[in-house]
Amino acid sequence: MTTPDKVARHVAIIMDGNGRWAKRRHLPRAMGHRKGVDAVRELVRSLKDTPVECLTLYAFSSENWKRPEEEVDDLMNLMRKFIKSDLPEFIANDVRLHILGDWRALAPDIVAMLEDAIAQTAKGTRTLAVALNYGAHAEIVHAARKAAAEGEIDEQAIERHLFSAELPPLDLLIRTSGEVRLSNFLLWQAAYAEMLFLDVLWPDFTPDHLKQALAEFAERERRFGGR
Ligand code: FPP
């Protein structure tokens, strides 16, 4: 069976290469992350010109806590600033915020900001899903435990309890920076997703790269295990 629908409704991105972007310019890593946020902002703005209904971004993995404290603080501060500065734009542009991961374990002020942003954007028609303190293994364990508590564990029961339960099926997974691995991101959801590994560092990623990726997606033949 091939899919008649060549439109990617749900795109996920592993935003990699902020550190290398900064290093090449002899700048502190924090500058790479700052530019990375600018790239996020431009991409979210461009969504209205694409058929993408949901964009999921890997912003902070549960393994990222192993980075130096200063870098973790930088990333958390960027998150605070980003929500504060861009929330009015999300509301104006009908962007709904969704968070995946164990995000309620983040600093209480960030949790409160995110809860407020989720509530204020609830009516949005396009979704920006941000993975924060996220790991796919932990997500699957969490879903399996919930399913077990309800009764039988089958695929539908697990899917109902994934953090992505209310999102469209994942169509396209992009990783920037030339690395070719999934790094514990959306392992369940990626089962039939198309994958694209781009040689672009995240701060250099533009809305045009997304449009090219969508064009490439449209050329691919998806079989979902059939022929
Ligand atoms: C990978 O680059 C990137 C991250 C670990 C964080 C991604 C975060 C952002 C783009 C900013 C925050 C996001 C939002 C939504 C506000 P790296 O540091 O691993 O780069 P390197 O592999 O070149 O060192």
TrEMBL record:
One of its GO terms (cellular component) is cytosol. Mg(2+) binds at residues 16, 194. Its EC number is 2.5.1.-. Keywords: Magnesium, Metal-binding, Transferase. One of its GO terms (molecular function) is ditrans,polycis-undecaprenyl-diphosphate synthase [(2E,6E)-farnesyl-diphosphate specific] activity. The active site is at residues 16, 64. InterPro entries: UPP_synth-like, UPP_synth-like_CS, UPP_synth-like_sf. Substrate binds at residues 17-21, 29, 33, 61-63, 65, 67, 175, 181-183. GO terms for biological process: polyprenol biosynthetic process. Binds 2 magnesium ions per subunit. It is an enzyme of class 2 (transferase). Its cofactor is Mg(2+). Catalyzes the condensation of isopentenyl diphosphate (IPP) with allylic pyrophosphates generating different type of terpenoids. Belongs to the UPP synthase family. Homodimer. This is Isoprenyl transferase. It comes from Qipengyuania flava.
